[in-house]
Write a structure and sequence with these properties.
The complex is a heterodimer. By secondary structure, chain A is α+β, with helices and mostly antiparallel strands. In chain A, 33% of the residues lie in helices and 22% in strands. In chain A, a hairpin with a 3-residue loop joins strand 6 (160-165) and strand 7. Chain B is an all-alpha fold. Chain B has a domain at 97-280 and 291-314: MetI-like (MetI-like fold, Orthogonal Bundle). Chain B is 79% helix and 0% strand. Chain B has 13 helices and no strands. Chain B has helices at residues 2-32, 37-42, 48-57, 64-76, 90-125, 132-144, 147-161, 177-211, 214-221, 226-264, 269-278, 282-310, 312-320. The chains are: A alpha+beta, B mainly alpha. At the A-B interface, helix 1, helix 2, helix 7 and helix 13 of A face helix 2, helix 3, helix 5, helix 6 and helix 7 of B.
Chain lengths: 525, 323
C-alpha cells in the first residue's frame, strides 16, 4: 500500500513537466521545435553577464512599483530609494550619514540658527541641458513650503518665515530654530521652475537621468554626462518590477537581473554562489512589537515588561531571519553612532519566571488574549509576528496574528490607533535621531503607540531646545533609557538588508537611509 | 430580422446594466472597507491637516452618491479620470495592459480549446482501459496544482533550464513582438493547464451521458457504427455545454492571470488590479473592473451565439424571447 502511494507520487511529480510540454505543441510549433536545438549552446548566466557587462548596462529587480515620479509628491519609500539617483536638493545625504552640499556649493547657518544661506553651485545643469538658476531654487523650495498642491507640502518646512535671494545666494529665514530644517531641505529636490510634467517625464540634477517608465513593469535611467559631481559608471540602468518573491529569484537565476536588494534569507539560499555574492547591510529601522500603551492590558507597565522578559530577541532573529539582524533594546539603531546606547539591548534577558511573576502581580496569572495586527504585504513582519505568538505562549499569553493590507494598517493602526499591538519597522527618513524619539512625546501627532510619560516629555522638550551637541546627545540617550525602562514596546532588531549582486558587479555602497546609489556601481574588468 | 435586432438590443442593455451595477458595487465596497486614498498617498509622515487638504483636493470629502455619479458621468463621456498614485490619465496607464491581457487570454483560450476537445474525446474512448488510472490522476493533479506553483515550474523548466524565454525580463509588445508573444505563451500555458483538465473531464462526462441516451442506442441498433455516431451526433449535442463552459473560462481568464503575471513578470491587467486595490487607487480599479465586466458579458454573448449556431432550438428562445 505504502509502496504504491510512493510510486504514485513519483509518477505525478514526473508527469507535470511533460504535461506542460504537450499543451504547447498544437499552438506554436516554431517555439517548441526550434528552441531546443539552440538551447544547450551557451552557459546561461555567463552569456548574459558578459552581455550586459560588455554594453555597460545593469538590470535591477525591485519588489514594488513606483508611485508618482514627481519628487515632491512621491511618497513610497521604494520610489524615493531609486529616484535618489535622479534628484538632488540643495544638500544631500552622504553614505556616512552626513548632510553634504549638492546643488548648493556652500551652506552657512547663522549663530541664532534662524538664517540659512545657500550659495548656488556654478555649472549645475538639469537633465534637459539647461543650467540651474536661482529661479528654479526658489520655485522648488516654495512648492514644498507653501504651494496649493497639498501632496507636495513638506510639514518640516513650515518653520520657514521668508526667502530672500540674489542671483547666486538664497537666504532662508526661519520663524524658530529647527535642527530638522536642513534635513528637510534635503527632500526639497531642485526641479525646473514651472515644469509640469514631473509625474511622467521627470527632470532633475542627479547623476542619472530618467529615460522611460512602463507602469507595473520597468523604469529606465541613463548616465547623465553633464553631472556636476562624480559621474556614474554604468551607462544604462533598468529597474524591473516583480512583486512576487519567487519572480525575483527566477529573474536573477534566468539572467534577467543583476542586483536585488532587501531579500530574505530563504530567497538568497536559492542563488548559486558561482553567480552571485550576497552582501549584508542593515535596513536602519527599529523593528519591534509595538504596543498600544493606552489599550488594556498594555496600559500597565508590568504587563509590558512581562512581554519583554518573555521574548528572546535572538530567537526571533534566528527563527524568522536565519540569524541575520542586530538585536535592539530601544528606539535607536547602531548607524546613529553616538546617539545609540548599546547597553540597553540586554536590559531584558529572557526570563520566563520573572515574566510570569510580573503578569501575576498585574492581575493576569493565567495570561490573556491579544491581537497582533500586521501589514500583510511585509512578509518579514508577518513572519516575526508568527514567531512571537509561539514565544508568548510560554508565559500563557495567547496572541493571534491579524494580517491587514497596508492602507488599512495605515488608517486603523497608525492613524486611528485602534489596535492592541503591531509588528512594524520605524525608520528615520531624514537621518535625524530626533525623528525616532520625538514620536513618543504624549501629544505628538505620529505617536501611534500612545506612549505617555511625564519624565519623557520633559526630557524631550529639553533635548529639542538644546543647542549644545554633547548635551543634546546625553538627553537623547536618556530618552532611549526611559523607553527601555518603561518597556514602551517589545524591541526586537534592526533588520538585515541582504543584497544579491551578480559576480563582476562591484561598488555597492550602503547608506544609513533607505536609498540605492547606482552611481557607485561598476562592472569589474 | 427583428429577432436579431431585439437580441442585439437585449445584449447591449445587459452590457450597460452589468457595467453600471459592477461599478456601483465596487464603489460601495471601497466605501465600506477601511483605508483612505489620501492617507495612503501621503504615507506615514503625513499630518492630519495634509490628509484633509488632499482629501478635499481629490474630491473625497463629497458625499458618496455625488462622487459615484460624477465618476459615472465621466465614464459615459469617455473620461476615466486620473490615477491617484501615478497622477496620470487612467486610460494611458491601462491601455497597453488591456492589450497584453487580451493576448494572454486569447492565447490561453486557443490552447485550451485546441487541446481539451480532442483530449476529451480521446479520454472518453479510453475509459476503462489500462490508462484510466494515470489519466484520472494526471487530470486531478492538473486541476489541483495552484497557478503560482505551475508558474514557478514553467519558469524554471522552460525559462532557466531550457531557456525558451527569460523569466523576469518581459520585453514589451512594442519593443520585441515575437519575444513578447513567446513569453506570454508560457504564461498562457500555466493558465491553461488546470482549465484543460476541467474541460476534458467535463467533456468526457457529457459524452458518456449522451452515449447512454436512447437516440444513440437507436442509431447504433440501426447499423451505424459507434465512432460515426460519436462524431456526428453525440459530439454536436455535447458541444453546447462545452461552449458554455469555455465561454465562462474565457471570461475568468483575465482575473485568473494575476498570479501567473506576478511570477512570470508579465505587466498585465490582473496584476495592476491587485496593486491598485492595495493602494486604494479607485479610478484605476473602477476602470479595470468595468473592463472586466465588459469582457465577461462579451464572452457570454460569443458563447451564446456559437451555441445558437450549433443548436437552432436555442436561437428561437434567445432571439424571439417568446414564441
Amino acid at each position: 500500500m505504502k509502496k504504491r502511494f510512493l510510486a504514485l507520487i513519483l509518477v505525478l511529480a514526473i508527469s507535470v513537466l511533460p504535461a506542460c510540454g504537450k499543451t504547447a505543441e498544437p499552438d506554436t510549433p516554431p517555439a517548441s521545435t526550434s528552441a531546443p536545438t539552440e538551447a544547450p549552446e551557451p552557459a546561461p548566466t555567463e552569456a548574459v553577464k558578459t552581455g550586459r557587462a560588455a554594453t555597460n548596462e545593469l538590470n535591477i529587480g525591485i519588489a514594488q512599483d513606483f508611485d508618482s515620479l514627481d519628487p515632491h509628491t512621491m511618497t513610497a519609500a521604494g520610489t524615493k530609494e531609486i529616484l535618489f539617483n535622479v534628484f538632488e536638493g540643495l544638500v544631500k545625504p552622504s553614505s556616512e550619514g552626513e548632510i553634504i552640499p549638492a546643488v548648493a556649493s556652500e551652506v552657512a547657518k547663522s549663530e541664532d540658527g534662524l538664517t540659512y544661506t545657500f550659495t548656488l553651485r556654478p555649472g549645475v545643469k538639469f537633465h534637459n541641458g539647461s543650467p540651474v538658476t536661482m529661479e528654479d531654487l526658489v520655485y522648488s523650495i516654495e512648492r514644498r513650503w507653501n504651494s496649493d498642491d497639498a501632496a507636495a507640502i513638506l510639514a518640516a518646512l513650515s518653520v520657514i518665515d521668508h526667502l530672500d535671494h540674489d542671483d547666486t545666494t538664497l537666504t532662508i529665514t526661519l520663524s524658530e530654530p529647527s535642527n530638522e530644517f536642513l534635513a528637510a531641505v534635503m527632500n526639497a529636490y531642485i526641479i525646473p521652475a514651472g515644469y509640469d510634467k514631473q509625474a511622467t517625464d521627470p527632470i532633475g540634477t542627479g547623476p542619472y537621468k530618467f529615460v522611460s517608465r512602463t507602469v507595473q513593469d520597468s523604469l529606465v535611467l541613463e548616465r547623465f554626462a553633464d553631472y556636476w559631481g562624480t559621474p556614474g559608471n554604468i551607462d544604462k540602468v533598468t529597474f524591473k518590477i516583480l512583486e512576487n518573491a519567487e519572480g525575483l529569484v527566477l529573474g536573477l537565476q534566468s539572467g534577467a537581473l543583476d542586483l536585488v536588494a532587501h531579500m530574505s534569507s530563504d530567497q538568497t539560499v536559492q542563488l548559486s554562489a558561482d553567480d552571485f555574492g550576497i552582501l549584508e547591510g542593515s535596513m536602519n529601522l527599529v523593528q519591534a512589537l509595538y504596543l498600544n500603551n493606552k489599550e488594556k492590558p498594555f496600559d500597565d507597565v508590568r504587563v509590558r515588561q512581562a512581554l519583554c522578559y518573555a521574548v528572546d530577541k535572538q530567537a526571533v532573529i534566528d527563527l524568522a531571519f536565519d540569524g541575520y539582524g542586530i538585536p535592539l533594546g530601544t528606539s535607536m539603531f547602531p548607524s546613529f553612532g553616538k546617539y545609540y546606547d548599546e547597553s540597553l539591548t540586554d536590559y531584558y534577558t529572557m526570563n520566563i519566571e520573572k515574566s510570569k511573576e510580573l503578569l501575576t502581580e498585574a492581575g493576569y496569572p493565567d495570561g490573556f488574549d491579544m491581537t497582533i495586527t500586521v501589514p500583510s504585504n511585509y512578509t518579514p513582519h508577518v513572519n516575526t509576528a508568527t514567531v512571537l505568538v509561539e514565544l508568548l505562549r510560554e508565559v500563557g499569553v495567547k496572541a493571534t496574528v491579524q494580517p491587514v493590507d497596508w492602507s488599512t494598517w495605515l488608517e486603523e493602526v497608525y492613524s486611528n490607533r485602534k489596535y492592541q499591538s503591531t509588528v512594524t519597522g520605524v525608520s528615520s527618513d531624514n537621518m535625524t535621531a530626533r525623528k525616532l524619539l520625538e514620536r513618543f512625546g504624549t501629544t505628538v501627532h505620529n505617536n501611534f503607540t500612545n506612549y505617555s510619560d511625564e519624565e519623557y516629555d520633559t526630557i524631550l522638550a529639553q533635548a529639542l531646545s538644546e543647542t549644545d551637541d554633547a548635551k543634546q546627545t546625553e538627553l537623547y540617550r536618556a530618552l532611549e533609557r526611559n523607553l527601555t525602562e518603561n518597556a514602551a514596546n517589545v524591541y526586537l532588531q534592526d533588520m538585515a538588508d541582504l543584497v544579491a549582486v551578480r559576480n563582476g558587479l562591484e561598488g555597492l555602497t550602503f547608506y544609513p537611509i533607505y536609498v540605492l546609489d547606482v552611481s557607485t556601481l561598476y562592472w569589474a574588468k | 430580422m427583428t429577432g436579431v435586432f431585439r437580441y442585439t438590443l437585449k445584449r447591449v442593455f445587459l452590457l450597460a446594466l452589468t457595467m453600471v451595477l459592477v461599478s456601483f458595487l465596487t464603489f460601495l465596497a471601497f466605501e465600506l472597507v477601511s483605508g483612505d486614498p489620501a492617507r495612503t498617498m501621503l504615507g506615514t509622515e503625513a499630518t492630519e491637516a495634509q490628509v484633509t487638504a488632499l482629501q478635499h483636493e481629490m474630491g473625497l470629502d463629497r458625499p458618496f452618491f455625488v462622487r459615484y455619479f460624477s465618476w459615472l458621468g465621466g465614464f459615459f463621456s469617455g473620461n476615466l479620470g486620473v490615477s491617484y498614485s501615478y497622477r496620470q490619465n487612467v486610460w494611458d496607464l491601462i491601455g497597453s495592459k488591456v492589450e497584453l491581457s487580451l493576448w494572454l487570454s486569447l492565447m490561453s483560450f486557443v490552447i485550451i480549446a485546441a487541446v481539451s476537445i480532442p483530449l476529451g474525446v480521446f479520454s472518453y474512448r479510453f475509459t476503462g482501459g489500462f490508462f484510466d488510472w494515470p489519466r484520472t490522476t494526471l487530470n486531478q493533479l492538473c486541476m489541483a496544482v495552484p497557478p503560482f506553483f505551475t508558474g514557478i515550474l514553467v519558469s524554471w523548466g522552460f525559462g532557466i533550464v531550457l531557456r525558451f524565454f527569460t523569466p523576469g525580463d518581459f520585453p514589451g509588445l512594442r519593443v520585441d513582438f515575437a519575444a513578447s508573444l513567446r513569453h506570454l505563451l508560457f504564461g498562457a500555458i500555466c493558465l491553461s493547464i488546470p482549465r484543460i483538465a476541467m474541460t476534458v473531464r467535463m467533456l468526457r462526462s457529457t459524452v458518456i451521458s449522451e452515449m447512454n441516451k436512447a437516440y444513440v442506442r437507436t442509431a447504433i441498433s440501426r447499423g451505424n457504427d459507434r465512432k460515426n455516431v460519436l462524431m456526428r451526433h453525440v459530439m454536436k449535442n455535447s458541444m453546447v455545454s462545452v461552449v458554455t463552459f469555455l465561454g465562462q473560462t474565457l471570461a475568468e481568464l483575465v482575473g485568473a492571470g494575476i498570479v501567473v503575471e506576478q511570477v512570470l513578470g508579465i505587466p498585465g491587467l490582473g496584476r495592476f488590479l491587485v496593486s491598485s486595490i492595495s493602494h486604494r487607487d479607485y479610478p484605476v480599479v473602477q476602470a479595470i473592473v468595468v473592463i472586466l465586466a465588459f469582457w465577461v458579458v462579451l464572452a457570454g454573448t460569443v458563447a451564446d451565439l456559437i451555441n445558437q449556431a450549433i443548436d437552432p432550438r436555442l436561437r428561437i428562445t434567445a432571439g424571439g424571447g417568446q414564441r
